[in-house]
Amino acid sequence: MATPLKPAILDPMWSNNPITMQVLGVCSALAVTVQLAPALVMGGAVIAVLVASNLVVSLLRRRIPHRIRILVMLAVIASLVIVVDLLLRAFAWQISRQLSIFVGLIITNCIVLGRAEGFAMFHPPGRAVLDGFATGLGYAAVLAAVAALRELLAPHNGLAVLAPGAFFLLGVLVWIQRALTRHQEAS
Amino acid sequence: VVASARATLRFAAVVSAVLGIVVAVTAAALAPRIARNVELERKRHVLAAIGEDVPRALLASRYQEIVRDDIVVLAGTPYPVHRVVDDHDRTRAYCVPIEGAGLWGPIRGYLALDADATRVLGVTFHEHRETPGLGAQIEDRSWTGRWVGKSIVDERGGLAQLRVVRGARPDDPHAVDAISGATITSRAVESLVQRGLERYRPFLEERWRRR
């Protein structure tokens, strides 16, 4: 059942992108994309959490009792997020202040739990790590794109710094990508 | 895996213990570094309250150069006063901590007063959990700037009640325009500033008598 390596890496980046295709993690994509630097750090934090949570869940996948698997995943993810938050506060203080509560909110980010339940539970550690990395990269790429556009537009357009402006921008990005891939939402 | 209740409990206990240890060890290992960052942030805000924007690398030395951390005893309780001095060691400002409950968590900040302790030089908030985009505007200079120049002395020479109200005019000596969309945060800041001033009232009145 192993899918070829190339789509396993590229699909989460493009045709199955967590933000533009699955429309997950939108809240943070609007909140931390006023400037590029914090958006990149947020992307890095999500990549780290996704890789580590996929790895841990995959290693435990044959031992986790079925009834409490979601609880176990949430406990793993929450612990990882606390560790990442502490690391940022110790080594990237200014940016961690700008990201405020949004690092902590990675715990509730559906992308992370989705990959744990939907992928890491059924794949060996190597594959799970790769999937976490690719999915995180797909998330980070959209964040970086939105943030770069907002930072460029900010001096010319006051709307770009506000959340509604980010919402419009993200909508346009989703539109462009779906037009290019001729993606149809299943009805 | 379908497991018995006993095995499920045992698994949950082991996972919780391991995760707890990982988090606790990380927190303990990073605590000194984080504490240093928090202390620098505090110093940055004391200086920001008097209008000085100091680069991070120079914070500690600048703070040591111009800020004297005094303790005043008011009604038997010691309270900190950060006294800002000029080159000749003359006081040019007083900076006092203010704190209280916000919408989602405690709000902590500093209120800076001029050498006479009659006018506000600035306010800053270095710790809060207010709603991003709404209440979190209390840390933006566009809002804290509205406090500059407000008078804490009323017409009869007593302690004025500074208000945070919607539509307050910039030239109103005792009122600051509230943040629209953040009524609870605005009220919280009003009350914590009032309580802070009330706490330091004996100290302030002593300064006024010396004028």
Summary tags:
heterodimer; A: 187 residues; mainly alpha; 8 helices; B: 211 residues; alpha+beta; 5-stranded antiparallel beta sheet; two-stranded parallel ribbon
Note down, in words, how this protein is organized:
Chain A is an all-alpha fold. Chain A is 66% helix and 0% strand. Chain A has 8 helices and no strands. Chain A has helices at residues 5-10, 26-31, 36-60, 69-91, 93-99, 110-118, 125-153, 163-181. In chain A, helix 4 (69-91) crosses helix 5 and helix 4 packs across helix 6. Chain A is globular, with a radius of gyration of 17 Å. In chain B, a hairpin with a 4-residue loop joins strand 3 (91-101) and strand 4. Chain B is α+β, with helices and mostly antiparallel strands. Chain B starts with a helix and ends with a helix. In chain B, 39% of the residues lie in helices and 24% in strands. The relative contact order of chain B is 0.11. In chain B, strands 1-2-3-4-5 form a 5-stranded antiparallel beta sheet, sandwiched between helices. Chain B has a two-stranded parallel sheet with strand order 6-7. The chains are: A mainly alpha (187), B alpha+beta (211). Chain A binds chain B through residues 31, 60, 62-68, 71-72, 75-76, 79, 82-83, 86-87, 89-91, 93-94, 97, 100-102, 162-163, and chain B through 1-3, 7-8, 11-12, 15-16, 19-20, 22-23, 26-27, 30, 33-34, 37, 40-41, 56, 129, 132-133, 136.
